[in-house]
Amino acid sequence: MRMEAREAAAAGAGGRAAGGWGKWVRLNVGGTVFLTTRQTLCREQKSFLSRLCQGEELQSDRDETGAYLIDRDPTYFGPILNFLRHGKLVLDKDMAEEGVLEEAEFYNIGPLIRIIKDRMEEKDYTVTQVPPKHVYRVLQCQEEELTQMVSTMSDGWRFEQLVNIGSSYNYGSEDQAEFLCVVSKELHSSPHGPGCEASRKAKVPVCAPSDPRLSWQ
Fold it and tell me: What is the DSSP string of 18-85?
């Protein structure tokens, strides 16, 4: 909490009256005064702030009002203090998480460090994800082979469209209708390489140019 000079002075008088060990503690971080409770600062027992307000062998100068002087950036101290108050990381949209992480590491606030690192890793993963690539294949087959072809497609191949191209083959006394079948598949690629191994081993029915019968590739 940022205080006006008059409010800071009033709080300073209260702190001195209690011999510097009252409920309220004032911190002068980089020229900005923050007022909080000793209970808040001691929430993380191993932190710099907890040791400071408990007087554990930490030498810290004080300003003219008795506030502890801490030579750090006050911009990032607000989220640090609020995390100790309610256990949540709340940042303005323009505030860099890297800056808060730097301060959290300086003050040795373990839970906050882990939260920020997890958020940063999640953002990096989202940015580096590669959108799936759609692959299409056109298969030529006879009418009597359609059911077999559709039922035996595997590894994520999906039927898209069927086009009747007429009767091109005659077997005995009956003409056999020919079809073009369009199938598709999504290939999920890794940012570190091509699509997964399974996609390269996918089976889809195809027809050799010289033979209308189905084969596997």
Answer: TTT-SSEEEEEETTEEEEEEHHHHTSSTTSHHHHHHTTSS----B-TTSPEEE-S-GGGHHHHHHHHH
83: Cβ contacts below 8 Å, ≥ 6 apart: 89, 109, 112
- Alpha-carbon radius of gyration of the chain: 34
- At position 42, the amino acid (one-letter code) is C
For residue 112, the SS3 value is helix
CA dist 183 and 158 (Å) reads 5
CB 204 within 8 A of CB 183: yes
pLDDT per position as a tens digit, 132-185: 777 888 888 777 777 777 777 777 788 788 888 876 555 555 667 788 888 888
| Nearest alpha-carbon partner for 77 in 98, 100, 53, 51 | 100
User: How far apart, in whole angstroms, are the C-alpha atoms of residue 24 and residue 3?
Assistant: 14
The pLDDT of residue 83 is 95
- What span, in angstroms and rounded, lies between the C-alpha atoms of 112 and 187? 37
Report whether 205 contacts 192 (CB < 8 A): no
Alpha carbon distance 132, 122 (integer Å): 19
Return the residue matching tokens 């702190």.
15
- CA nearest 215: which of 127, 123, 145, 133? 145
Of 144, 162, 152, 137, nearest to 212 by C-alpha is: 144
